[in-house]
Amino acid sequence: MRFGILFLLSLLATAASGEKPWPRHTIDPVDAATSRAGADGVRLGYLNADTLPDIVTGWEEGNAIRAYLNPGPEKAKNPWPAVTVGKVKNAEDAVFADVDGDGWLDVVSSCEGKTKSHFVHWAPVSAKELLTESSWKTEVIPVTKGIEAWMYTLPCDVDGDGDVDLITGSKNEGASVSWIENPGKDASRDLSLWKLHRIADAGWIMSLRILEQDGQRYLVFSDRKGAHSGIFITPFANEAPYFGKPILIGGGGEEVMFLDLALLDDDGKVDVVASIRPDKTRVIYQPEDPLTIWEDSADLELLDQNTFGSTKAVKVGLIDDDQIPDFVITCERAQGKLKGVLFSNVFSEFEAISDSEGVKYDRIELLDLDDDGDLDIITCEERAGLGVFWFENPR
């Protein structure tokens, strides 16, 4: 297994597991009175066209979609300027996308529960109006309404016609991986013209990612439930139906949660890292042909269920200065004394990032928010009222 060399390096480079939690800075606090309850996921984009990545989050229990403008490193530790871009029920995901191609990022939300719809939250075409709630307009995408419990959406030009389509996944009865076709040609804002195309059956989609290798694009996705559980890859095609048949590359029959893509060795190929409930973090190395069996894999040390919650998400980055890939992990079910955010340096001990406050953490983004040269951690927490926040890397 390829972890062998990294394991020897980690023995030399790893510090003792830390006891002190990292400083946590709130981006947007919980406030039920203003529809801020149940923050569920963070996604990045450049909303106001500056050089600082902004954030969008769906507040599932608050029935609101919120966007946050990055204020820069000097003000990043304070709550960020924010706006509610739309109010929809059962929001499970929200993502930035220039849906109509006007140069301004809109927001697309994915809703489950009884809502079962996608919505476009149209952005104003003026930076001065971005933080004005009334300047945003919300419309449903009719072809998705009441069809499936939508869980996650990935903006992507599927058919190569120059506009933004939407790859999406759902859960439970009738679940699928599908894509929603943008009619383009100045018709993007007429949502009645968008078309829904099914790629594959599913159980409960958690992640959708694009892997690019040797000039070819692949869709990689994780499914956590039922007969379709596992990690799959399918190639893009240049003509309809634009996707090949999904191929299982790992985690078959396991409850695979969020995944990440990363270069983990020196072969120049993008590998897959996935959280597998309740206690696994698995690396699957890309073979010479991505559409063959991905046999070379390894698991990190199992997560101690007496110390941490159950694995939810993983993100790869250089958290310390030893140049060995680190795995940042968030957990759910971190009740009581259990901790919900941690990282590991290959086979080193898990080091807690959070304290025991917080129960259900979610997706992770890594950015140097305070401009001190190391990666900080952005995430959110849905159950204990922590809202949207970031952990300051003290290393």
Shape call: globular
Instruction: Enumerate the spans where pLDDT stays under 50 for 5 or more consecutive residues.
Output: 4-18
Percent helix, as a range, is under 10%
Widest sheet, order of strands: 1-28-27-26
Mean pLDDT: 93
Annotation, overall tally of beta strands: 28
Distance between the termini: 29 Å
Q: Strand count, sense and closure of the main sheet?
A: 4 strands, antiparallel
Question: What is the oligomeric state here?
Answer: single chain
Number of helices: 1
Order of helices and strands: HEEEEEEEEEEEEEEEEEEEEEEEEEEEE
Strand content: 35-45%
Give Rg in angstroms.
Answer: 20 Å
Provide the structure class: mainly beta
Structure summarized in a few sentences:
The protein has 395 residues and is mainly beta. The protein contains one helix and 28 strands.
What report would you give on this structure?
The chain has 395 residues and is an all-beta fold. Helices cover 3% and strands 40% of the residues. The chain has one helix at 3-13; strands at residues 24-28, 43-45, 54-59, 64-68, 82-86, 91-97, 106-111, 118-122, 137-140, 149-156, 165-171, 176-181, 195-201, 205-213, 216-223, 230-235, 247-250, 255-262, 271-277, 280-284, 297-299, 310-317, 326-332, 341-344, 351-352, 365-367, 376-381, 387-391. A 4-stranded antiparallel beta sheet has the order 1-28-27-26, with no helix packed on it. The chain has a 4-stranded antiparallel beta sheet with strand order 2-3-4-5, with no helix packed on it. It is globular, with a radius of gyration of 20 Å. The relative contact order is 0.14. Residues 4-18 have low confidence and may be disordered.
